[in-house]
Specification:
With about 240 residues, this protein is α+β, with helices and mostly antiparallel strands. Helix content is about 15%, strand content about 25%. The protein has 4 helices and 10 strands. The strands form 2 sheets. Strands 3-4-8-6-9-2-1-10 form an 8-stranded antiparallel sheet. A two-stranded antiparallel sheet has the order 5-7. β3 (about 80-85) and β4 form a beta hairpin. The longest helix has 12 residues, at about 60-70. The radius of gyration is 17 Å and the shape is globular. About 35% of the residues are buried.
């Protein structure tokens, strides 16, 4: 019988096992005369509000997340895996009405999303990324996600990573990881498809809650609701 793997993101066992991306940030300036559309999601939690911006550079993940929001899929689910100085994870449909102490992390929606690794998008603090199981294509879970908390990383350590992986960090990326923090060892291994633009202090609060042996919060932390916000701007 095939063993079903948890959707996960590793902690220390795989540090530096993934290559780092080339550059930092999102795409360059949009061309003049076109309509620039941005997609945001207001996620209300039992510990406060988090606003997430979805990247247009990862359209498959963006559109999948939007579709789930429109169906109210995330409403009443838990942040079922929380590790301080690392990340907060949610989106498991089995977490809805889950009894205390129940092992969570296996729930899914019956499909995966192809990996969309983008060297411009890194696991900086507040990054929104897709959890996955240990599949060779590194395809993402159709529903489980995590928001990075992470910690600050010294540039010397990042340069050592470069020597091992063959990838190159720009100075801007180095500055980001040194001043904001993040989880650089996940770069190019898990798809980053958004970032926190409001409520990073809520991410910190959730990450700090007490957890059990499976890193499930002892006191449930709920996703109360999600709302899609679409903004358009004509580029002059």
């Amino acid at each position: 019988m095939t063993k079903k793997l948890l959707y996960f993101i590793p902690v220390c066992a795989v540090i530096y096992s993934f290559a780092a991306p080339h550059s930092y940030g999102v795409s360059g300036k949009p061309s003049k005369g076109r309509i620039d559309t941005t997609y945001e999601v207001l996620m209300k939690t039992s510990m406060g509000d988090i606003t997430l911006k979805l990247y247009n550079e990862t359209p498959k993940h963006r559109d999948n997340f939007i579709a789930l929001v429109k169906k109210n899929f995330f409403d009443s689910l838990l942040f079922h895996r929380v590790i301080n100085n690392f990340m907060i994870q949610g989106g498991d449909p089995n977490s809805k009405n889950a009894p205390s102490g129940m092992m969570l992390g296996n729930g899914d929606v019956g499909y995966t999303v192809p990996a969309e690794f983008n060297p411009k998008l890194i696991h900086k603090k507040g990054a929104l990324a897709a959890a996955r199981n240990d599949n060779p294509e590194k395809a993402s879970s159709g529903c489980q996600f995590y928001i990075v908390q992470g910690k600050k990383t010294d540039s010397t350590m990042l340069r050592k990573m470069e020597q091992r992986t063959g990838w190159h960090y720009t100075q801007e990326q180095l500055n980001t990881y040194e001043t904001q923090g993040g989880t650089p060892f996940l770069d190019n291994g898990y798809t980053v498809y958004g970032e926190t633009i409001k409520g990073i202090e809520v991410v910190d609060k959730i990450a700090a809650v007490a957890g059990d042996g499976n890193n499930r919060p002892v006191e449930n932390v709920y996703i109360l609701s999600t709302k899609l916000i679409i903004k358009t701007n004509k580029v002059k």
